[in-house]
Model the fold of this input.
Amino acid sequence: MTLNDFLNKLEDKNPGQSEYLQAVRDVYEDVFPWLDGHKEYLEEKLPERLSEPDRILEFRITWRDGKGNIRINTGWRVQHNNALGAYKGGLRFKEGLKLDTLKFLAFEQTFKDALTGLPMGGAKGGSDFNPKEFEKEDIERFCQAYMIELYRHIGQDTDVPAGDIGVGAREIGYLFGTYKKIENKFQGALTGKSPAFGGSCIREEATGYGTVYFLKHYLENSGGALEDKKVLISGSGNVALFAAEKLLNLDVNIKSVSDSDGTLEFKEGMTFDLLEALKVLKFEKRGRLNEIETGKFKDQVNYHKGKQPWGLEGANVAIPAATQNEIGENEAKALLKSGVDTICEASNMPLTTDATKYVRGLKSMTILPSKAVNAGGVAVSGLERSQNAEYQHWSAEKVDGELQSIMSDIFKTCLKYGEGDFVKGANIAGFERVANAVIAYGAN
Ligand code: NDP
Done:
């Protein structure tokens, strides 16, 4: 069977699911040529078995807001594959969220979790609930209503959700509180909890910190130095701001962050004071970046309304940390023009297929792929599960040490399997690990 035959069949079966089809195509374009030397995986129909989720749960969430109005949302959990361990992956709350997006994320998550070397399968879930529309109390009500259905599908040895876009430590608190109440058990059925009640130190920071650890390994391996770089970051949420924090600690010049309304450019680079102001704005006040433009930092920033950071001049590294498909071919060309030679993917699938093809065809630009770069978040979630199972609480130093060691192993794996092409290395290594376990279980 050729790759095109396979993709045509997948499209017939999943019409209109463009992000899911894109994710499978992106991975299998690397995997299929490699399968020529590994016919046993084709005979055992691994491409089919690893692209189709084990199970998709879809449910209605009916809840009453603080003004007494009935509200209705849709919830999902896509349990993609548990060959390597209990299902594991985040929950996303976003207006207009579609099952298509969650299927792509769950597929990617399976290989990402495999790369960590920890015993975790892949899943993703969420709802089309829009947290930006509501006050804190309504978000609490929604989380409770969501968990009233989700609880029956998850558990510490079954499926362990965490956060993602729109679901941070606050939402995990509401979700875990409801789970605990219904089950009358204090068990690690969710990760991303506050360290004050069963969470791991460094979980909040892990995806951003892990991104920087991976980037540092890459630069050191290719003869560069992180502290010489000028970095564009998109997004200003959990991943973006903790990546910025680690970069600042390493004395790196950060030129931007963004949100869905525009880009904040730092004229002389981000400072620790600016980072603290951004954390308060985004994590506490849930405000917009243009508020910085008019505040006490107004002389240090330019705000570009409706713009992404990719057109800013004079950077070497781009860290997309907002959402999928945020860099198309035109944006990739703008990055090249700006002087960027490394795209370090912190958000999931930030490049469109065209942009990925364009960049991979260049000798002067390298992609560090999301399923490796951002695996630090789920890795520390895995460590949170271990701590919960042992009734232990590890120090921040210990967790950070483990995170650094896991990111170093992921880097070495990608290097070995990809021979210089990190996208290929991550895709093949992740696929092989899951495939070997699936074959060992026989036909089920
Ligand atoms: P957050 O919700 O904390 O932040 C998301 C950021 O991206 C916000 O600044 C948001 O802006 C911006 N954003 C979202 N959608 C768009 C859009 N369509 N256009 C422009 N900007 C947008 O999410 P996270 O930081 O947790 O996640 C960011 C990415 O990292 C996602 O791809 C996620 O899947 C991935 N990831 C996250 C992990 C984690 O541990 N949190 C782990 C691994 C991957 P606004 O406020 O305006 O919406």
Q: What stands out?
A: The mean pLDDT is 97. Residues 163-166, 207, 235-240, 259-261, 321-323, 346-348, 374, 377 surround NDP (CB under 6 Å). Residues 1-52 form one domain.
